[in-house]
Amino acid sequence: MHITIWNEYIHEQNNPAVVAVYPRGIHQALAKLLAEPLEKHHGLKAEGLTITTATLEEADHGLTDEVIKKTDVLLWWGHQAHDRVEERIVDRVHRAVMQGMGLIVLHSGHLSKIFTRLMGTTCNLRWREADDRELIWTVHPAHPISRGVPQPLELAAHEMYGEFFDIPVPDELIFVSAFSGGEIFRSGCCFFRGKGRIFYFSPGHETYPVYHQPAIGRILANAACWAYQPERSGIITGHSPNVEKDWWR
To answer: Would you say residue 177 lies in a domain?
Structure first.
């Protein structure tokens, strides 16, 4: 499995509060967070797993044709610079998802160009930065993404995301979060687009150490394995011969 982690990598260069939490960048924290549960719980040894990173300022935002072609699962974290992501790169990622590349969209990536295009809605929501306690409740315990996840999973302090969340009805709803301010939120949602599998997971505000927590790593590792499809190809459309012709002879 080849996983690519995409991160704007802007906050970590200009916000001391973020640097204190993620001194090497959110992308590097995610890479470290994923490696252990993928090996421990999914049996992916180093020889069978590659995790690389890409950032906004790289050529093609680090998502060249070559990178996308070899990527099985793409994680996406964005916040300040959604508008700076070039449409041709969004086209490239969108095409890959439709052909079977997995996509995991994190936190404020809900407003990224790729996620809003795949959802077809504004993907907007309510929010508040006030150190709310967040309880992440599993509402689909039989789903592979919820395997081994504490019930509930507590984040002692986090940014509040609240309903209404303007997304299509999820194909599968895995987690719902409850906040100390009384709000609830669909925090773990699965979607199918073309041959691709998409998971949106809301925890991960840049000033909180969410991506240092092993339980979060377990969720993301589970999601990567769920989204992974070793064979990627487009859906067959267009003119088709009669496949049953003379089948009985």
So the answer is: no
Whole-angstrom CA distances from 13 to 8, 21, 22, 86, 233 are 10, 12, 10, 21, 38
175 falls within a domain: no
pLDDT in tens, the chain (249 residues): 999 999 999 999 999 999 999 999 999 999 999 999 999 988 888 778 999 999 999 999 999 999 999 999 999 999 999 999 999 999 999 999 999 999 999 999 999 999 999 999 999 999 999 999 999 999 999 999 999 999 999 999 999 999 999 999 999 999 999 999 999 999 999 999 999 999 999 999 999 999 999 999 999 999 999 999 988 776 777 887 777 766 555
Q: Decide if 148 is inside a domain.
A: no
For residue 221, the enclosing domain spans 2-123+187-227
CA–CA separation, 110 and 105 (whole Å): 7
Count of domains for the chain: 1
**In this structure, what CATH number is given to the domain that contains residue 223?**
3.40.50.880
Question: What are the residues whose beta carbons fall under 8 Å from the beta carbon of 247, sequence distance 6 or more?
Answer: none
CA atoms within 13 A on the CB side of 138: 17
Strand locations in the chain, DSSP E?
2-7, 50-55, 73-77, 102-106, 126-138, 153-162, 172-179, 184-193, 196-201
Instruction: Give the C-alpha distances (Å, rounded to integers) separating 237 from 18, 106, 167, 233, 244.
Output: 47, 32, 27, 12, 17
**DSSP letter, residue 168:** P
Residue 244 lies in a domain: no
